[in-house]
Amino acid sequence: MNNKILCIGEFLWDSLPKGLFLGGAPFNVACHLNMLGEDCKMISRVGHDLLGNQAILRLTQKGLSHEFIQIDEKYSTGLVNALLDVNGNASYNILEPAAWDFIELNDNITSYASGVKVMIFGSLAQRNPKNRFTIKTLRKNVPLTVFDVNLRPPFDNVEIIRESLIGTNIVKMNDSELSVISKWFGFPSDLKQAANALSSLFNTETVCITQGEKGAFLWNKNSWAEHPGYKVKVQDTVGSGDAFLAALVAGILAGNDNYKILAFANAVGAYVASCDGATPVLHLNEIYELQNSRDQLQ
Asked: What pLDDT sits at residue 277?
């Protein structure tokens, strides 16, 4: 396996009704990529505190390296108050500042990043200028960049989105985020037309739009694919989009066709939504059963 992957950004604790769960989109994606057999490392920063110590411990328990997890002496480990509605959908109160806002660009990270194939980054991690500089600098020498749009008001800055889209190979967002971005950039209201406009304006090779229980569609290799998703009993949706992204990236790296990429990504995302927490163990046999059960297709 030669596809080294870096995930960079927020590393934090989600405070849910059932307790504290380690999270942050880049961490969730890294966990799922690791469980899918990819060589993935995480870049972030935690506080010199109990939650930081526990975060690093849990990270290693998930099979991930803590080599690029920095310790901040000033700022605390990130914390998010996540509220779930009756359908298991989450809303977030993301406390700031947090240690993950201040990722330092050092020689070890720069050297390692020069040899990776894929770098996955998001918009939330760039709410602080320090991280924006770190991410922008690292992106320059990575062959394949993946932008995970995660609009979290009040941290939804149009200029950060614009700069992140420029030069990015793969972008993933949900339909609500595409609607917001379409208004910012004057794209059509139709989702497919908007995705096409985004691809054309920013010269983005791959655009994937998720639609929750309605599945997802993908523009990749100059062609469209759609998949209606899978019906599951939702426990909570925290981390399901991150699991989808991990499976999407794995499928693209494997060179699979667009429909196969979407089918697997949807199945992984649905499976995670049927479990508690953002990074449950991925039982691939159950995920394949979900894919193969035609009566589960919506």
From this structure: 81
